[in-house]
């Protein structure tokens, strides 16, 4: 459950990160691939080495989707409807991987924001990313 | 048993050298209590830990955070023998404190994030992966005496 203040904080953070979506997204993905090598199995058709075009564009896509959702968290199911379908019927990524990516995104944010990634921001972000992942997995079964 | 290469050992030591236990310990424990509020159940004697600001101003949280990170120092010093080093702590947390071992994983994640806030780019993806391998061994060791 996100409070009004938390929703506002999340929206602010992601608005600030949108201009560097590529860097944030690719960093989180790289961390996930390094810490959880099994996640690489979903990307065998792409070049996911550091700074590769695929990695940068994919990272950007993911961050922009997360940022879009953050603009109105109460409407997540509506905003994510197309992505729900994509993940459920086409990508079919095991949803347990969303947790792994979320953790790596939190580490990326911590490294990027330093002390500004306060425990309160951390808690709000963890809740938001969990909600995002849950909505993304809704159409799976 | 988990085996660490010489490179991994030096990576773990290098990150640990950058960690101020008196800063990161309290921050990590505060994060656990704030991000995962159900963990409050284990700290009944700590007084008010029911809001973020109460947690951040709580002296007992601060003191205990330091205790926890000092124990992690033992693991860094005994990286090839973490299970044996932590057997006592594992028994203690199971038999005396009755801690659900899933919480060790949560604490490990918060320690990583607390360190990341301080060292920033020094915790690059490869370093993070090595650090995670180390913390996973610590979490396993904390689970080892549960039966």
TrEMBL record, chain A:
GO MF term list: haptoglobin binding; heme binding; metal ion binding; organic acid binding; oxygen binding; oxygen carrier activity; peroxidase activity
Pfam families reported in the protein's UniProt record: Globin
Gene3D superfamilies, sorted: Globins (1.10.490.10)
Swiss-Prot/TrEMBL keywords: Heme, Iron, Metal-binding, Oxygen transport, Transport
Globin domain segment(s): 1-141
CDD domains, alphabetized: Hb-alpha-like
GO cellular component: blood microparticle; haptoglobin-hemoglobin complex; hemoglobin complex
Record GO biological process: hydrogen peroxide catabolic process
Similarity section: Belongs to the globin family.
Protein name: Hemoglobin subunit alpha-D-like protein
Organism of provenance: Lates japonicus (Japanese lates)
From TrEMBL, chain B:
Protein family: Belongs to the globin family.
Pfam families noted in UniProt: Globin
The organism's taxonomic lineage, starting at the top: Eukaryota, Metazoa, Chordata, Craniata, Vertebrata
GO cellular component labels: blood microparticle; haptoglobin-hemoglobin complex; hemoglobin complex
Domain named Globin: residues: 3-147
GO terms (BP aspect): hydrogen peroxide catabolic process
Organism: Lates japonicus (Japanese lates)
Protein name: Hemoglobin cathodic subunit beta-like protein
GO molecular function, a single term: heme binding
InterPro entries: Globin, Globin-like_sf, Globin/Proto, Hemoglobin_b, Hemoglobin_oxygen_transport
Keywords: Heme, Iron, Metal-binding, Oxygen transport, Transport
Gene3D superfamilies reported for this sequence: Globins
């Amino acid at each position: 459950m996100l409070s009004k203040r938390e929703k506002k904080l999340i929206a602010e953070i992601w608005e600030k990160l949108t201009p560097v979506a590529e860097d944030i997204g690719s960093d989180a993905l790289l961390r996930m691939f390094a810490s959880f090598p099994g996640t690489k199995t979903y990307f065998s058709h792409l070049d996911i080495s550091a700074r590769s075009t695929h990695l940068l564009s994919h990272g950007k896509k993911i961050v922009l989707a997360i940022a879009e959702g953050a603009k109105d968290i109460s409407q997540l199911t509506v905003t994510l409807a197309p992505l729900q379908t994509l993940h459920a019927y086409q990508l079919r990524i095991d949803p347990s991987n969303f947790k792994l990516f979320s953790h790596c995104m939190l580490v990326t944010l911590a490294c990027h924001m330093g002390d500004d990634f306060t425990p309160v921001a951390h808690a709000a972000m963890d809740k938001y990313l969990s909600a995002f992942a849950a909505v993304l997995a809704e159409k799976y079964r | 048993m988990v085996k660490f290469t010489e490179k991994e050992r030096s990576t773990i030591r290098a990150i640990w050298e950058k960690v101020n236990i008196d800063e990161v310990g309290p921050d990590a424990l505060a994060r656990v209590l704030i991000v995962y509020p159900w963990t409050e159940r284990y700290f009944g004697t700590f007084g008010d830990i029911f809001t973020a600001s109460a947690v951040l101003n709580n002296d007992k949280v601060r003191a205990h955070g330091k205790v926890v990170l000092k124990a992690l120092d033992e693991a860094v010093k005994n990286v090839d023998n973490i299970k044996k080093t932590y057997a006592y702590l594992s028994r203690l947390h199971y038999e005396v404190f009755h801690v659900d071992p899933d919480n060790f994983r949560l604490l490990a994640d918060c320690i990583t994030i607390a360190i990341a806030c301080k060292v920033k780019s020094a915790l690059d993806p490869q370093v993070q992966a090595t650090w995670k391998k180390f913390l996973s061994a610590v979490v396993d060791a904390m689970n080892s005496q549960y039966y």
